Amino acid sequence: MKSDQGGHPARPGGLVTDGTYVLQPIGWVDSPLVGKNAAPKQGSRGITRRPARLRRIDGRLRDLEVGSEILVLTWLDRARRDVLVVHPRDDLTNPQRGVFSTRSADRPNPIGLHRVTISAITGSAVEVQDLEALDGTPVVDIKPVLHPLDR
Amino acid sequence: MKSDQGGHPARPGGLVTDGTYVLQPIGWVDSPLVGKNAAPKQGSRGITRRPARLRRIDGRLRDLEVGSEILVLTWLDRARRDVLVVHPRDDLTNPQRGVFSTRSADRPNPIGLHRVTISAITGSAVEVQDLEALDGTPVVDIKPVLHPLDR
């Protein structure tokens, strides 16, 4: 992030005066999943392999490797932030649970965490397999998977 | 998050007009790690077990279980957001790498990802083992570890 982007000062931590922080997209998801109900629930069985693309990534990509696994952090911008309990998998027959014990997209800070495999890197785009995120979702971070502890 | 907190409208996604998003802490870390150089590098060998506490967590905790593993997402508020390449582990003899291929705290959106085990839950606090985060670090999300894929 450059200090002249977004109108926010580039001071450490990005603290805004009211105790909140500012998250700035580093790129966006191109995905065949369009519309809020298109995304499969995380951990679903029988997910078919689909390519998706992280585009306009602002950062050095040449150290990423095709074939390696990464963690993609997204901002699930179509989620609801005002719910603290949900019926898991949107199934009303499931008892309500606190969102922090589920992977629901609806949560106070709707950060998506996706473990995916890189299938190609071209310019500022990274093609990945099995990213369960809606088209246009902001990407906020990319991290390597750490072995063996996978922290 | 309630709509009267923080002065931000609780609309879906929390989009601010300039394309950024607002992250609101859901709690804070109490940790014996104080000062920027106190935190061990992620993936370090020989880490000793230390308890830390997630305090003032705003959300339903009774569905979390002592002994289970969770992913704690933090906002590493003392990190630098204006660097895109680093020497891994702050060792100048390591060749520079793009931050997205490292677990450096310094990155455009300094979100920390910590896989930890719950050792106790009391009121709005969760005691965990081996959380490598500085005292006072904001907590922004808690997610269950999904088995076996650990997405």
Folded structure, characterized:
2 copies of one chain form a homodimer. With 151 residues, chain A is mainly β. The first copy, chain A, has a single domain, classed as Elongation Factor Tu (Ef-tu), domain 3, CATH 2.40.30. Helices cover 0% and strands 31% of the residues of chain A. Chain A is built from no helices and 9 strands. In chain A, strands 2-3-8-7-4-9 form a 6-stranded antiparallel β-barrel. Chain A is globular and about 45 Å long. Chains A and B meet through strand 1, strand 4, strand 6, strand 7 and strand 9 of A and strand 1, strand 4, strand 6, strand 7 and strand 9 of B. Strand 1 of chain A pairs antiparallel with strand 1 of chain B, so a sheet runs across the interface.
Task: Give the gist of this structure.
Chain A has 151 residues and is mainly beta.
CATH homology superfamily of chain A: YaeB-like
- Content of β-strand of chain A: 25-35%
Stretches of chain A where pLDDT falls below 50 for ≥5 residues?
Answer: 1-11
**Rg of chain A, Å, rounded:** 16 Å
CATH class of chain A: Mainly Beta
Kindly, what is the distance between the CA atoms of the first and last residues of chain A, rounded to a whole number of angstroms? 25 Å
Label the overall shape of chain A: globular
Largest sheet of chain A: 6 strands, antiparallel, barrel
Number of helices of chain A: 0
- The overall average pLDDT of chain A, rounded, is 83
Task: Show the helix and strand layout.
The structure is a homodimer of 151-residue chains.
Chain A: E1 21-23, E2 27-30, E3 51-55, E4 69-75, E5 85-86, E6 97-98, E7 111-122, E8 125-129, E9 138-144
Antiparallel strand pairs in A: 2-3, 2-9, 3-8, 4-7, 4-9, 5-6, 7-8
